[in-house]
Each structure stands twice: as structure tokens, then as C-alpha cells.
Design a protein that fits this description.
The protein is mainly alpha-helical. 48% of the residues lie in helices and 6% in strands.
């Protein structure tokens, strides 16, 4: 068969996701912290974008530079790896070198050092020295300070530094000694000897391999580590189960001695490194707030502090577009404008979508806001998506990493989506979260041995309340709530206070 080349024209349908649409989808699922980081990156890449800070300016002052939002009819791919040459061409040589043109630098380039503050720092860096002095010392720094005065040999100090770097925030050593010895090219005996020195550092119990070693080090310092206490540490799982009879038999002590040993054990610190400085915990900032209005209505509002406010600088665009010479420069300016327009539009659409989804969630779960978790209704993504005319995937992205501030606390939007449990009386289904709350209430109401409910008893009680639930489901919910079994709860209630 002869081979030949020919041209064919075919028509077909397909779904193409443009880079702009990908950006809009990505913005939907970002949390407020991730969105702030993304916007900061866009501000660095796109010179036509700037923050809208007009609300923060005092009244009566003129805006330093005119800026206005541009219609977002035009959109195209942005060239993030280019720079505008027009601004650089207009800058003086001194400005190009430093990025700014300070008024206090004399023409010769010499700097008047007499204006430097007594602290020896520059403006904007005044907090550096004070921050070092007032910052909480970390556990690694505390151990390193003790290592400096430990009088170890150079080889031992090197091994100690490696082991200190492997200590986690709780104070435990998370390194394999044999692997460390092989990596450093030294003997295992040397590593173990250095570890023994580190375990004598403050706080007591640091550099332990596990909880038992940590408690043992603290007991040895208190001179309370005897054979009975060693047997107790070897059977910490029985302590967790509160098996007092088994512990008395293993430790060879009576009930009073065992009670004293457990009191000493509770006074110890299983996380010796927790008292030292660590990375600050970021508080949860709600994306949407709900407040109660008159007549039992709920007002849903976006949290403006979590929404970046961006503007497109028209004046600067007109300035640089008129000075663009080559086709590449003109294309870059045009792409920057289109990218800025699309980002502003995407942020606005993201805010509207979050508000729309949150409003529907509040409408569906108004009973929870008014009466509590027992009235939380079963809800899924499809119900919300059908009510607001969106796709389930869009609702899923909107509810990811978003939080709602209500009079009952701050909840993740995913919290309001719970599975349903059928009603034993054929009525309205129950939310799984409300059923878990009822189980917790039943168990918290137990006051003595006779009040302890088994899983089967809880099933009967819930059936009487109109909840059709299986025993395995009750056990699963109880374990998810980290509630021990009825046997362990009954054993705890029998113990003397």
C-alpha cells in the first residue's frame, strides 16, 4: 500500500481549562493565610498591581498615586519572569543601585553616620536586638548552652551537637544511635557515652528515647527509682488501663503503696521540652462571621480582614505603555494588565462564592445556631450545590480551609456537613454529629458504677429517642470521641478519689 500525505479538517468538542480558569479554581480552595502569600507573590511579579490602602489613610489627605479598578474583559497569560525597563530607565544611577532615592544621602555617596541611633541599627531594624533578648529560648539553644560548659572532647562535642539537633520539641531524641555512629564514623560506645552526658542536662528527662526512659531519669534524680517503681514503668500500659490488681501483683506492693507510686508518677513531666519556646501557633481567623439579628434572622458577612484588596494602577500603566519600545515590552505590559484584571476579578468572584455558600450553610443549619449541636441537621455537598446552582466540586473547594465564626464558636465549614442516621420512627433523619453529642452526654452523666452504660445500653437509649443506630456504630463514635469502654469506665469509678 502506497503512503501519501494529506490534509484533513475535523470538528470536535472538548473542555479546555485556561490558565486563568485554573487560577480562579486554585484561589477558591486557598485558606486566608495561603491567599495572602499568593497575593504577595503576585504583587512582586506584577508591577501594575497594588494594595488598596485608601481606607487606612487619614481623611483629608490626597492619595499618593491614582489607582482604579479596571474592567476585566481582557485576560491572557502573564509573563511572571520579566521586568519593566521603563521605570529603571527613568531612575538615576544611585536609585538603580539601591532601589530607592533617600533624601539624606549626600551627592558624593558618603553617608552621615552621625544620624544613626545609639542602638547601632538602622531605621526599621530597631527591634532586632531587643527581639533577641526578649525571645523565649528554644530547647535546642538551652542544650547547646549547657554543651558549651560540659568539658567534652572535640569528638564528643561533635557527636553531642548531632544528637542535640535530633531532639524534638517535647525533649525526646529521635535518632537511631547505631545509624548516627555509622554516619559519623565513630563507635556506638562513644555515641552512647555522649548520650548519657546529654541525659544529665536540664530539664531532667531530656534526650530520652521514650516515655519510660524520660520518667526513669526524673525518678533517678529524685532518688525514687527502686525495683517496684521499675516494674511500674515496665507496665505503663496497665497504668493506662487502670488495672490496679495487676499492678499490685507485678510490683509486689499493697494498695496504699501503689497509690503513692501513682501519685509520684503523675507529678513527673512526660514532655520535658514543652516548657521552652517553640514556633508560635497561628490563631484561626474566620473567613465569614454570623451574627443574630432581630426577628431570629442570621446575618452572614465576609471578614474583610481576610480579603486582599487589590487595585490596578492605571496611571502607571499609561506611563509605561507609552514608553514601551519593542514588541516584547509592549506584550509584557499588555499581559501584566490582563493578568492584573483577571486576578482582581477572581478575588471578587471568590468572595462572592464564599458568601453564597456560607449563607446557604447557615440557612440549612439555623437550628444548630439557635439551639445547639443536638439540632445539627444532616447535610451534604449536593444539597448545598443544588440550592445555590453550583457544582459539588465548587462547594467542596469553597468549604476547604474556611472557617465560620458563630455565636457558638468558630467552626470549619466542613463541620456542618455530617452524614445522616435514620430515624427509628420514620421521621426526620438525625445528624451523625448530634448523635455523637448525645453519646457524650450519656457517658458524662455517669456518676457511679451503676450508672455506667454499655454500648448495647446506649443503643437501646438512642432507639428510645428515635435514633436507629447499630451497636458497632456506637462503638465507632465512642472510640472517635476517645471514650474508654464501659469496663474501664466502671473500673475508674470504683477507684477512690
Amino acid at each position: 500500500m502506497a503512503l501519501s500525505a494529506r490534509l484533513e479538517l475535523r470538528q470536535g468538542q472538548g473542555l479546555v481549562i485556561t490558565p486563568q480558569l485554573q487560577q480562579a479554581i486554585k484561589l477558591l480552595q486557598l485558606s486566608n493565610l495561603e491567599l495572602e502569600a499568593y497575593v504577595d507573590g503576585e504583587l512582586e511579579r506584577n508591577p501594575l498591581l497594588q494594595r488598596d490602602e485608601r481606607d487606612a489613610e487619614p481623611e483629608g489627605e490626597a492619595e499618593p498615586q491614582a489607582a482604579a479598578e479596571i474592567s476585566t474583559d481582557q485576560a491572557s497569560d502573564s509573563h511572571a519572569n520579566a521586568e519593566l525597563d521603563a521605570r529603571r530607565d527613568e531612575a538615576s544611577p544611585g536609585e538603580r543601585a539601591t532601589g530607592d532615592a533617600p533624601d539624606d544621602i549626600p551627592p558624593g555617596g558618603a553617608v552621615d553616620w552621625s544620624t544613626v541611633g545609639k542602638g547601632g541599627g538602622f531605621d526599621g531594624d530597631a527591634d532586632g536586638f531587643e527581639g533577641v533578648l526578649t525571645r523565649d529560648k528554644t530547647l535546642i539553644e538551652h542544650l547547646t548552652d549547657q554543651l558549651a560548659v560540659a568539658r567534652l572532647s572535640p569528638a564528643e562535642s561533635a557527636v553531642a551537637s548531632v544528637l542535640i539537633d535530633a531532639v524534638d520539641e517535647a525533649g525526646y531524641l529521635r535518632a537511631d544511635l547505631a545509624e548516627t555512629a555509622e554516619r559519623l564514623g565513630c563507635t556506638l560506645e562513644l555515641v552512647e557515652r555522649v548520650l548519657g552526658v546529654l541525659q544529665g542536662f536540664e530539664p531532667t528527662g531530656v534526650c530520652a528515647r521514650d516515655v519510660r526512659d524520660c520518667l526513669m531519669l526524673q525518678l533517678k534524680e529524685l532518688d525514687r527509682y527502686d525495683p517496684a517503681m521499675a516494674a511500674l514503668l515496665d507496665n505503663l500500659e496497665l497504668v493506662a488501663k487502670r488495672d490496679m490488681a495487676g499492678l499490685r501483683r507485678i510490683c509486689g506492693v499493697d494498695e496504699e503503696d501503689l497509690r503513692d507510686m501513682l501519685s509520684e508518677l503523675r507529678a513527673l513531666t512526660p514532655r520535658p521540652g514543652a516548657a521552652f519556646g517553640a514556633e508560635p501557633v497561628q490563631p484561626v481567623v474566620p473567613d465569614v462571621t454570623v451574627r443574630e439579628g432581630q426577628g431570629g434572622l442570621w446575618h452572614v458577612e465576609l471578614n474583610g480582614d481576610t480579603l486582599p484588596k487589590l487595585l490596578v494602577d492605571q496611571r502607571y500603566h499609561a506611563h509605561v505603555s507609552g514608553k514601551a519600545r519593542s514588541d516584547q515590552e509592549k506584550t509584557f505590559v499588555s499581559d501584566c494588565l490582563a493578568s492584573a484584571n483577571w486576578l482582581v476579578k477572581s478575588l471578587d468572584q471568590r468572595a462572592k462564592t464564599i458568601l453564597k455558600v456560607s449563607s446557604e450553610i447557615v440557612r440549612q443549619q439555623d437550628a444548630f445556631l439557635a439551639y445547639g449541636v443536638e439540632h445539627l441537621r444532616p447535610l451534604n455537598l449536593k444539597t448545598v450545590a443544588d440550592a445555590i446552582g453550583m457544582h459539588e466540586s465548587t462547594v467542596s473547594r469553597v468549604t476547604s480551609n474556611k472557617h465560620l465564626a458563630t455565636p457558638r464558636g468558630v467552626f470549619e465549614l466542613k463541620f456542618f456537613f455530617t452524614s445522616s442516621i435514620a430515624s427509628s420512627e420514620g421521621g426526620e433523619a438525625h445528624s451523625a454529629e448530634s448523635v455523637r453529642h448525645k453519646i457524650r452526654q450519656l457517658i458524662e452523666a455517669e456518676r457511679n458504677d451503676a450508672d455506667v452504660h454499655s454500648d448495647d445500653a446506649i443503643v437501646d437509649i438512642l432507639h428510645g429517642a428515635g435514633v436507629d443506630i447499630a451497636r458497632r456504630t456506637v462503638a465507632k463514635y465512642r472510640e472517635a470521641l476517645r471514650i474508654p469502654s464501659s469496663v474501664e469506665r466502671r473500673r475508674r469509678l470504683k477507684e477512690p478519689a
